[in-house]
Amino acid sequence: MKICSVCHKISGSGQDHLDCIQKRRVELEDDDFKSKITEKLELSKNPQDLGVEVKAILEHLAREKDSKD
Fold first, then answer.
1. DSSP letters of the chain?
2. How far is CA 34 from the centre of its chain?
3. Fewer CB within 10 Å, N or C, the chain?
4. Cα distances (Å, whole numbers) of residue 45 to 32, 33, 57
5. Model confidence over 50-66: pLDDT tens digits?
6. Residues 14-51, buried b or exposed e (16+ Cβ, 10 A)?
7. What superkingdom heads the lineage (predicted)?
8. In this predicted model, what pLDDT tens digit does every residue of 2-33 receive, in sequence order?
9. What residues form DSSP beta bridges with 10?
């Protein structure tokens, strides 16, 4: 038996729980996606081409990213 390094509960298999590993991978991918979204959409080149809703979402993500840093 081992303690899972993600959830800190006992793991009967001697390894981290598979769902905990998957959750961590998704969270890391999500953070990476948030940090690169403006570059992927080339927001800095021509922001006038985007819809109002998309601009609001991107501004929210940018503020969220800045608050974490």
1. -EE-TTT-SEETTSS--HHHHHHHHHHHHHHHHHHHHHHHHTTTT-GGGS-HHHHHHHHHHHHHHHHH-
2. 6
3. C
4. 21, 19, 17
5. 677 777 888 888 887 77
6. eebbeebeeeeeeeeeeeeeeeeebeeeebeeeeeeee
7. Archaea
8. 899 889 999 888 899 999 999 888 888 877 78
9. 3
What is the CB neighbour count within 10 angstroms for residue 54? 13
Q: Can you tell me which residue has the tokens 């991918």?
A: 29
Token pair 């992927």 is found at 40
Which has more pLDDT, 36 or 14? 14
d(CA 5, CA 10): 10
Structure tokens at 34: 């948030």
CA-to-CA distance for 50 and 65, rounded, in angstroms?
20
